[in-house]
Amino acid sequence: METLRCEKLWKTFEGTYALADSTMxxxxxxxxxxxxxxxxxxxxxxxxxxxxxxPDSGRCYLxxxxxTGLPPYRIARLGMARTFQNLRLIQEVTVLENVMLARxxxxxxxxxxxxxxxxxxxxxxxxxxxxxxxxxxxxxxxKASTNAGELSYGQQKILTxxxxxxxxxxxxxxxxxxxxxxxxxxxxxxxxxxxxRDMGKLVIFAEHDVAAVRxxxxxxxxxxxxxxxxxxxxxxxxxxxxxxxxxxx
Amino acid sequence: MxxxxxxxxxxxxxxxxxxxxxxxLSVAQAAFYGLGAYTSALxxxxxxxxxxxxxFAGMVVAAAxxxxxxxxxxxxxxxxxxxxxxxxxIILFSVFNNWMSLTNGPMGIPxxxxxxxxxxxxxxxxxxxxxxxxxxALAYFVVWRLSTSPFGRVLRAIREDEVLAQSVGKNxxxxxxxxxxxxxxxxxxxxxxxxxxxxxxxxxxxTAMESxxxxxxxxxxxxxxxxxxxxxxxxxxxxxxxxxxxGLPNSVAANLRQIFYxxxxxxxxxxxxxxxxxxxxxxx
Amino acid sequence: xxxxxxxxxMVAGSAYALVALGFGLIFKVCGFYNLAHGxxxxxxxxxxxxxxxVCGWHxxxxxxxxxxxxxxxxxxxxVGVYRPMRRRxxxxxxxxxxxxxxxxxxxxxxxxxxxxxTKMLRTEPIQEGLSFLGARITPVQLLTVLASVALSAxxxxxxxxxxxxxxxxxxxxxPELSLIVGVPVxxxxxxxxxxxxxxxxxxxxxxxxDTDLTPLxxxxxxxxxxxxxxVGGVGSIPGSYLGGMFVGVIEHLGVWKLPTQWQDxxxxxxxxxxxxxxxxxxxxxxxxxxxx
Lengths: 249, 284, 292
Hints:
Chain A is of the alpha/beta class.
């Protein structure tokens, strides 16, 4: 079982509170959705958890290891991967290359192996197999040699998910995985989230879309102005009046 | 003159690793060029080291010194790196020019012997040509290998989106620092070659202008492509010869050349930041 | 002796501060490190030389026209080179490289027109200087310090209080929003270049009375300005002034105490130190490690 925990996170940006005394706990028992209006602090939370932003105070723990203040690449190496709200991909290279990039512990990434190539070819072909398997899972294998920039928006979103999985991460933080995606792709992505949970991964996603949350989440955390204002199963939380008000206000 | 073209090709290739793969610009290649030349010259003339020892030592010194520049500045925005290399270049020239006891300052180091490899002295021009060609091949080999390996894949990813590279677990600072150190070592190897070819070195060969010349070569020939650096080197080494035929006094010719390089840089940046024959540029 | 060094350092630092001010302002408003500012500096000194020493004009007139000319050159660079590049969405790195090209081109043009040798702006012999707190300061040096303080304070006030100044501040803090709202970004840029270049011209002329002119003077000064701006804080006007003074004093202390070959290195060492420890400078805002 994987666990992710943050305690008493505070973060201000130029006078506004992005995170205010946020304490949350996540486990791989169920998919957790983080909801909240724009500016609630969802993306800031994700950035703090993955090391891209340092909190003013508070701590984060990944499977009981203190990861506060670690650089993002180290946290990624510890098994936590993420996607971005603005869909980061290398547009000018192929789908396959994007996934290959995400593969961990590549021999050929070190200087002397890259120059002398002992065992690099084997390593590459093993990574190639793993990449193709992931593309198969994401139903993108036919697009393997297409440039990432030529995919549809929904396909690109699934590709970023595949890249996350390529890192062999056990904890996945997804920033708006279905925003702007057509309904068919959305359903596919949400189904994938459930399958990932069944495979033992800790899945967290931040979303606006109430329907998506209802469908895919086992647990919902609602944020507003940097604070947690509600927590519980979607059916229960999403019916509460103050939640609806927080969205409309 | 072909040998000079080869020496500059090595320098251009060393910069192309940074510009073509990582998309960053170093204004310090001439400083590393000089470090290689001086290290070689000093070790061979003062301590009696062999040619290859001198080359190796020069590369190590350059790579080590590159860390002073790369560690502090590569953590920050690219602009800081350019500035840091610019500062490093200016300072190093000042050191070459002022450290009389070590480098002989403006008077330079004369009497650098011809290179000896495995007991054979490289005496004739054509023998040196072979040696230089081997060095060029080495530089091309290193850069080509790195570019086509997963290492190169990460470099290009860093150029396109460093945040993405970090999010998939790449220690981007390490990659950048290593690439810069390799680039410095290659430039130093060109320096050792130059020292033994001309048999005399002085600080005026390793100025900021020289760094700009190398940048111009990469820009003219195009970054990231295969023949780009060689084309750039060939064009910009032969051009002054053409100017010489016009019969201008030396200093005027020198100024005109620099004006040309400066204008070239401006025009290329204005209209073709991606270079002529290259595939990757600086416009992200 | 120490007091003299300190004083000399502050005089030089005052001039560096003026250059750093313009350089920092251009970075703040236009978003890139304009290395050609060093060339503009050199132009200022050489124009003064041209008008006063070669053409024989009256000192005040010559200097005044030279400063105007310098502003014009800076203006020309912006309109002729940088503005078209901005239209093409050039990144700050591309603009920096272009400015490097301009720096080299203009410096060598100066060398072509005036010769590579050292020139002197002085018309009278060197004066001994007035006594001040145990050290000696010449009238020109005093003028340098006073002018620097006055111009820095004046710039700071102008940016805060005047209409044009506030427009420039607006563009500096948010160029895209300014464009949408209708603030004339182009005008702000040209004004910034004109003002910044004029300041560099003033600094060049003041320093040229003390030290001499060489075509390559721009290279050295721009390095000082860059370090000054980084030390003082990128984007902060008082920071640029402080940074300039800091660099001037440290540089002179270095000349006093260090062997010749390391004298220039101390400036570089300061740069590296600040990049490691405090890249935002003394008065700057913290730089985000990565933008997410």
